[in-house]
Amino acid sequence: MKNVSLVAFYGNKPPSLIKLIQRLQGFIANHHLIQQQFIPYQLEQVHGTIIGCEGIITDQGIISYWFQTHRGKERYLDFAGLVDYLHHRGCFPLTVRLGGYQRDQDYSFRSRGLHPYFRSFQLLESATEIIPVLIGWTWRGDRISLEIDNLRRNLQRFNLLHKYHPTPEAIDNDFYLRLGTINSKLTSAAIAEVARDLRHLLASEIAIEITINIQDLVLAQYQDLLLTPATTKIIPTGEITADQLKQLYY
To answer: Is the pLDDT of residue 23 over 90?
Structure first.
């Protein structure tokens, strides 16, 4: 399998997003339950994934890894169609709102069954570390829209399946950014306290809206999920050709 992903804000970022990332990373690093255990990602590598484009090389072409894994279907990636769609027919710009979600407000939307306030910041546990994750959603007309989920669904016509669309009915409208790693075990109570403090900060003091244009997107060939800059190759989406995209798999 080759690791390729369509991501936003890898490298260059709007000033408001830079300020938000730095503030949250500083808050986590100085939290009394974490402190020196937090390793922030480099500002350059913090990004929001639009869709994973992982593929399997065959003699006939590149098979969509997630269509095969989730749906048991052998679908070959349509590079020309995908590039044409992103360049000329995509639904950009998209506006994403990060922070400012009030727990007592009805947004007529649930993320994995939870109110946006509770999903706006998560601490995700793995076997060896804890990953702080900032989450926002597309925003239009003073309400959450399903534009990111719709974009991911539209890309199925080019045989890309979103990792979190395992079934046709699945919805994933999250725009998430990993901020670093906490290299220590925390109790459930400590995890709940840190998450609560970050959610309160986001709800009470921070609300930004950022615009995603095609100029903010890159196709990234990566070796690890952190998209470490030294081992990640990127091509701006607005400049990529179908042949260049195909070569990311070889």
So the answer is: yes
> Around 34, how many Cα atoms within 13 Å sit in the side-chain half-sphere?
27
Tokens of 222: 């990566």
Tell me, what amino acid is at 156?
Answer: Q
The predicted model scores a pTM of 0.94
Q: What gap in Å lies between CA 131 and CA 115, rounded to an integer?
A: 20
Percentage of the residues of the chain whose pLDDT score is greater than 90:
93
> Helix and strand tally (H, E) in the chain?
7, 14
Q: Give the E-state strand segments of 81-200 in sequence order.
A: 94-99, 121-125, 130-140, 143-144, 175-178, 180-182
Would residue 212 be called left, alpha or beta, if left means φ above 0 and alpha means ψ between -120 and 50 degrees? beta
Helical (H) or strand (E) element with 29: helix 15-29
Name the one residue in this structure whose structure tokens are 């609300």: 207
Residue closest to 47 by CA, chosen among 176, 182, 211: 176
Token pair of 77, please?
A: 């990636």
CB-based burial label for 121 (10 Å; 0-12, 13-18, 19+): buried
DSSP string computed for 130-151: EEEEEEEEEEETTEE--HHHHH
Residue partners of 31: CB distance under 8 A and separation at least 6: 38, 194, 197
